[in-house]
Specification:
2,4-dihydroxyhept-2-ene-1,7-dioic acid aldolase, lyase, binds ligand LXDSK4UY, Aldolase/citrate-lyase_domain, alpha/beta, eight-stranded parallel β-barrel, 265 residues, Pyrv_kinase-like_dom_sf, Pyrv/PenolPyrv_kinase-like_dom
Amino acid sequence: MQVPTNTFKQALAQQASMWGCWAGFATGYATEIVASTGFDWLLIDGEHAPNTLPSILAQLQAVAPYSTAPVVRSVNQDPALIKQLLDIGAQTLMIPMVESGDQAAALVRATRYPPHGIRGVGGGVVRATRWDGVDDYLNKAHESLCLIVQVESPKGVDQVEAITATEGVDAVFIGPADLSVGMGYPGNPTHPNVQRAIEKIIRTAHDAGKPVGILAPVEGDARRYQKLGCQFIAVGIDISLLRQGALATIGRYKEQPAERPSRTY
Ligand SMILES: O=C(O)C(=O)C[C@H](O)[C@@H](O)CO
């Protein structure tokens, strides 16, 4: 068998616009529901959702029959964790808080076998190789892997040229919540200074030929970022969708104090 096609990477290369959903419930059951609804991609959040390696694996297995492409976000930049995520079959990784070209290069190495990197060989023990059923996985794996680095801090914005120029970085994802907090505007990603930083990231990534994604659950923000050239935008968060739906439903029957609208996600 061949290495499974990474449809997310393929769509990026075709410059297709992709709408995504954050999956934060950390269960295969909930993430499968998201995958069944038509989003082009979904983010299995290993950074902030209560995920473990087995729960991420269960979600990858649950969404495999659907056309929604899974992206897995790691909690940190540890190459040992990256190895495990790749071994369970994650093909597209999002890595938080990348702040230098050196960090970006180290992440690329973590995804590559020697001599191009430091990834250890899982061989027949791991799902990535379909337990050794994939032909020539060791030489072909990198073709199907997609590395997304998050730029979401003032330092990352300063270093965005070096980060986006790094060979092997496939795409950049902007974290507006962390960026706005880091810049001193907590809960206000639409502050003009934050927006200027976001535009700088988009421009610089495009100059380097790298596609850009962003989280934008507010529709007006998502449409604006699309016009600015963002190619993959997470326009929903499953947890928020449930909560908003629940509030709206109970609100039709009981009077409750209105909640302050939030952009902090
Ligand atoms: O900084 C951001 O924005 C992100 O990276 C997303 C957040 O981690 C999170 O708030 C998504 O719910």
